[in-house]
Amino acid sequence: QSIGLVTGGAADIIQQASSEGLDAYITGEGANHHYHDAIEGKCILIFAGHYATETGGVKSVGRHLEQKFQIITEFLDYPTGIWPLILKILKQWFQTRTIVGILQVHP
Q1: According to the model, what pLDDT value does residue 79 have?
Q2: Which of 27, 36, 52, 92 is the most exposed place for a label (fewest CB within 10 A)?
Q3: Rounded Cα–Cα distance for residues 46 and 11 (Å)
């Protein structure tokens, strides 16, 4: 069994992955039609998130630079998309307030 991985948004090459004989192909994101391309090509297609698939490479480059040039690197983790931002805002909001109770509203 074989798996291909291309970071970011590289679902456009799912047909190439299928023709190369890959059993599965992992990339960050894609469109609805890529699902159908994967089904037709009998290749499992996994959308693992654009940001999530790119961070490993960036961290690896940082480690390489540290070893090669004896410098300090730091990976700044700022996920993209609306949900990480909403969660960050909510976390900051709750940290500055005291929760007295929870109100449940029933329709």
Answers
A1: 74
A2: 92
A3: 9
99 phi/psi in degrees, rounded to 5 = -85, 120
One-letter identity of residue 96: T
Cβ atoms of residues 8 and 50 within 8 Å: yes
At 41-50, the pLDDT tens digits run 999 999 988 8
Among residues 20, 82, 22, the alpha carbon closest in space to that of 51 is found at 82
CB 64 within 8 A of CB 43: no
User: Could you give the CA distance from residue 51 to residue 81 in angstroms, rounded to a whole number?
Assistant: 9
Longest CA–CA span in the chain (Å) reads 63
* Cβ neighbours around 59 below 10 Å, total: 13
With a CB cutoff of 8 Å and minimum separation 6, the contacts of 6 are 13, 25, 26, 27
pLDDT band of residue 94 (cuts 50, 70, 90) is low
How many CB atoms within 10 Å of residue 42?
Answer: 10
